[in-house]
Amino acid sequence: MSNARVDRDTVRAQEITAEQQYLSMLYAKLDALRQETTQRLKETLRASGGTPQARTERDISTRMYTDKLTQLSAVEHGMCFGRLDLDSGETFHVGRLGLFDEDHEYEPLLVDWRAPAARPFYLATAAARDGVGRRRHLRTSWRKVLDYEDEVLDLDAAEQGSDLGLAGEATLLARLDARRTGQMQDIVATIQGEQDRIIRAGMNGVLVVQGGPGTGKTAVALHRAAYLLYTFREQLSKRGVLVVGPNPTFLRYIGQVLPSLGETGVLLSTAGGLYPGITATGEESARTAEIKGRASMVDVLAAAVRDRQQVPADYTELTFDHEALRIDRRTATQARTRARRSRRPHNLARRIFRNEMFSALTLQVADRLGRDLLDRRDLDDINRELRADAVVSKALDELWPEITPQELLDDLLCSPERLATATRKHLDDDERDELLRLPGTTWTPADVPLLDELAELLGADDAQERAEREHQQREELAYAQGVLHIMEQDEELADEERLRVSDVLDAELLAERFRSTSDLTAAERAAEDRTWTFGHVIVDEAQELSPMAWRVLMRRCPSRSMTLVGDVAQTGALAGANSWHDVLHPYVQDRWKLVELTINYRTPAEIMAIAADVLSEMDTDLVVPRSVRTSGHRPWTRRLPSDGLATELPAMIIDELHEVGDGRLAVLMPPELLAGIGPRLAESLPDAAIGTRPDDLESPCVLLTVDQAKGLEFDSVLVVDPATIVAESERGLNDLYVALTRATQRLGVVHPDELPAVLRGM
Ligand SMILES: Nc1ncnc2c1ncn2[C@@H]1O[C@H](COP(=O)(O)OP(=O)(O)OP(=O)(O)O)[C@@H](O)[C@H]1O
């Protein structure tokens, strides 16, 4: 061995030892913090009794310490992953949380990756060093330092680097080459410059992140959530952050990323999961979902609501107090016009309709009795009796019923007549037939935006609930005033000169604080409240949402503080987006910002070359993202007759499983084929699962449709029957593009028919 080599090895060993000492010191600090927090939590939980205020304070402390402990456990793995050496001679370590030295004026021992000081770790390049001389990436396993990678940021070093300008290239490539587990991992140690700029972009306004497959859009979206919560915690902890994903399997796939970054207060949901009390697990054809997603459904639903505001053809006669009583068309029409003119939602305007009708019916009864003989009190009595009469009430209910969104939508979709009336101007007969269904059918994800829209159009007559809430608020205010009074008396005795409590806190504010100290987080409260508005909304696979789903999300975010990530070349849903402009113009006109991600971290160059042909076949200006690596595996094709798929695929799958070792394999196929051969395949292969449940992703082999695989990735992918995937939908090429780009290492295509022309290059 040469002397130079020996010297290098010695220096490396010394550096590792020094880093290990530092890391051990940090973990000792972490352990001490954990112990202290556990102790405080125990003390809080042990305390009992006391005033309502003391109890509230205890609840707050319990939550605070519990959150802190969760955060401290989440950072255990990979707590410190980098170091920056500045030109000034200063050195600091970067990690998943901030740690300080209380004994030395709170000197930072570890800088949180989200803090401004950590930014150069992600952004400094040889060309723009920002005072950084060297960046070090630490490779650790649990509490042990295994190795490190140094980048010396001078121009000579830059010339040797790759043309993609990657930071910490060796560490990054090691991460990207690792086997997949069925759960997404955070990327905090290797965030790249173009990603960092998006993660740390300001919070106001709508930011669209367009990027091809594997460019890290999902990763960026989740790290941005963590960054925003860190930077704008005060603002966001009250209203919460919503992250929307395309389906429950995807949510499960990304579910661990935020907790691993120490954030637990984010609501993860599908757009179909945003209506409390509704579980939308029903299935329907892509075309039915497309029709339900059209913007014109707003008018259809408004017409369906108007259809529930009837007047008699001529008159209805009923008996009241042994005499005939008439509800005639003219009176009912007048009452209906007044109610509609109020512009209130149906269930609230109903009260106006009824008031009008009861007044008219009161006069009818009074006329019969002789109106001249009656005074105001008599008329009030008649009005009251009419209101208490079940027959009269029922007759009015038939004209203008109180109705829930669920009842109205079920009635509408199950009745050819109602559907015909509401959709007359908007749908043709075929489209109407697509919507018809049997009563009580399980709700589908595309029904949810319709229910949400109806909830707005119908409103809830919550007068009683509101009165109760106001009563409770008055009590809280009175209590807070009492608290202030007592505190003030104490202060007056203590020190006349001091600033008084009431100078900085008034009773209403104090009452508000008591209210906001319910032991639920904003995310938990938001999940139960349809009308909750979020501080920030992040939408992943945003290209998939229908115009109706966008209305739901925009209602949840009136501030329009949003991050939308997606790829219009991957749109699979028929009601999904072709352009970001079309999606956003109705809400913010041109006031949105587009940023692009251009580097593909997932799909190796060999596979991207195939996918590029598919992309260029689509009518799009989008460019193929550049892969950061090659895998050394050539994608392959194999022809199998249709009737041989069920019998021959198992052997192929077993071979492929052998290749991926402890990694993950996905077999992607058209929905009908999956329904046909999926169960037999799963039965004959103990390692395979049909991806119906979210945790099926963790099995070594999972059988999925392309739609289900959206946003996911696997070490190896077999695409079965690409011709049907292309032919099956107007967006068939997009689906094929998605299918081909799911693999991190290996790709095989199995085709019963001729290969589609776009794949002939394989
Ligand atoms: N800076 C990075 N460091 C390490 N891994 C990264 C980085 N950026 C992205 N990745 C990895 O690349 C893979 C693809 O990322 P991600 O799923 O976020 O891409 P995407 O743009 O959402 O893809 P798609 O559009 O296909 O859903 C993931 O495994 C992710 O962890």
Automatic annotation (TrEMBL):
Is Nucleotide-binding one of the keywords UniProt gives this record?
yes
Q: Does the keyword Hydrolase apply?
A: yes
Q: Which domain of life is it from?
A: Bacteria
Per UniProt, residues of the UvrD-like helicase ATP-binding domain are: 190-604
A GO cellular component annotation here is: cytosol
* InterPro entries cross-referenced by the UniProt entry: DNA_helicase_UvrD/REP, P-loop_NTPase, UvrD-like_ATP-bd, UvrD-like_helicase_C
An example GO biological process term is: recombinational repair
Q: Which UniProt keywords apply?
A: ATP-binding, Helicase, Hydrolase, Nucleotide-binding
Positions contributing to ATP binding = G211, G212, P213, G214, T215, G216, K217, T218
Q: Name one GO molecular function term.
A: ATP binding
Q: What is this protein called?
A: DNA helicase IV
Q: Please tell me the species this chain comes from.
A: Saccharopolyspora spinosa
